């Protein structure tokens, strides 16, 4: 049995303002990806739709994990994410 797994490990949290706004506006991940594609992000970054979907899902996960801290920016600055 073969399993393929992509893993990214990093120590810097980057929040894309455009994706954050889409999340705040209640877009699903798939709808956010469509908006980003229509906005030309794939040409800017030379990324595939698969990479864009993965990036958007990662951003949404980050926003969900940080949601309580996003209500209190001063506390967010002191967190190790």
TrEMBL record:
Source taxon at top rank: Eukaryota
Source organism of the structure: Sinocyclocheilus grahami (Dianchi golden-line fish)
Cellular compartments per GO CC: nucleus
Molecular function GO terms recorded: fibroblast growth factor binding
A GO biological-process term: platelet aggregation
Taxonomic lineage: Eukaryota, Metazoa, Chordata, Craniata, Vertebrata
Alphabetized Pfam families for the sequence: FIBP
PANTHER family (UniProt xref): ACIDIC FIBROBLAST GROWTH FACTOR INTRACELLULAR BINDING PROTEIN, ACIDIC FIBROBLAST GROWTH FACTOR INTRACELLULAR-BINDING PROTEIN
Name this polypeptide is given: Uncharacterized protein
InterPro entries: FIBP
